[in-house]
Amino acid sequence: PASTTRLPHGDLAVGGVCLTEVAERYDTPAYVLDEGEVRTRCRTYRDAFAEAEVYYAAKAFLSRAMARWIDEEGLGLDVCSAGELELAVTAGFPPERILLHGNAKSPRDIAGALRLGVGRIVIDSSSEIARLAAAVGPRGRQDVLVRVVPGVRAGGHEKIRTGTDEQKFGLSLTDGYAQHAIARVLGQPQLRLTGLHCHIGSQITEVKPYVAALRRMVGLMARIRDSHGVVLTELDMGGGHGVAYRPGEPALDPTALARALRAELRAGCAAAGLPVPRLLIEPGRAIAGPAGVALYRVLAVKRTGSTTFVAVDGGMSDNPRPALYGVRYAPRLIGRASTADPCRATVVGRHCEAGDVLAADAHLPGDVRPGDLLAVPVAGAYQLSMASGYNMVGRPPVVAVDGGRARLLVRRETLEDFRSRDIGG
Ligand code: LLP
């Protein structure tokens, strides 16, 4: 996780910056992103997957600075809307290293991708093929991948499992839809099929399902060669690499994954008489998640029969993950040392719902009180990117820390932001 250092008086430093100082300077709630940790994670992936192309999945977290870091570290970018695409390109990200996803790409997404010249577009449904070809126009040619559902079950929660047919993404391998779509793509002169894609789910902590999916994908590549005489040169295995949100939880090791995929790819291709395609991967959470820390201030403490409710100044509007997936975080008290016995606290947000719970069974000192600061580790992915305007609380700022210095990347959403969008009609 973010390169934390324990300081005296129970304080914590990230990227060489004391979190209490960040809270004082930028107010709470606030999200702190450790630039060095993001870069280190990019390098870990680059090293582990040296012969592959690593695309950071922007949906986990994107800002202009983040796009620049990803670019400087030599990764590509996976986007799934014109919004993510435009923001990245505005930051100077080279469009040819961008890949566009989406199960329902809007005309604006497609027009933006073609105008800016993204490297690849991933086809997710049959209905998209003719529409994309028409948008490319008679003289153009767009590199595409086809997203295949390999029929492998994996992933940390029902809502983020995408490897089998009972969900909306991709084209089924088992039912033959993928094969049909591939034949149609090959018949479109405006589209150049460079390879296949699959993404079996998210928050996966084991290597095995990836290997199983890869085996099926190589099998399909061999069948495409046999029936169409086409040898595909790319295989994108998506993202989904799990991280530990609390101490002791498992995480996926990118080096172990790279080793297993490489071995299976070589063996599978050799057996099928195929040249080894270029491997692509799309980690999002594993790059951004552990590099982030959320900071909250305690506003109220309520002791009921069995539970101590510790209410903070943020909650489900800046982090909907607990409400959506039932995940729990491990907040800790910072900014003062306490010798009080620990209590089992339920850390809740400030929103008007009983389900607005950030952590159950959090280990906090028994004297936790209003005004205290809490730090929530592993907050860099799918929190701010999924934040909402619920209760008009406003989304927190993002502060980058690096080498002992803090700087604002994204400012806090203010009441004025809400008011200015409401044109009063
Ligand atoms: N590639 C594709 C096609 C994806 O759909 C995703 C994530 C990724 C890559 C990156 O997956 P990652 O490495 O970050 O797991 N909001 C959920 C996660 C949704 C993931 C959606 N797709 C959460 O907070 O757990």
UniProtKB/TrEMBL annotation:
Keyword Iron assigned: no
InterPro entries: Ala_racemase/Decarboxylase_C, DAP_deCOOHase_LysA, De-COase2_N, De-COase2_pyr-phos_BS, Orn/DAP/Arg_de-COase, PLP-binding_barrel
Catalytic activity: meso-2,6-diaminopimelate + H(+) = L-lysine + CO2
Signal peptide span: none
EC assignment: 4.1.1.20
Classification via SUPFAM superfamilies: Alanine racemase C-terminal domain-like (SSF50621), PLP-binding barrel (SSF51419)
Known function: Specifically catalyzes the decarboxylation of meso-diaminopimelate (meso-DAP) to L-lysine.
Protein name: Diaminopimelate decarboxylase
Gene it is expressed from: lysA
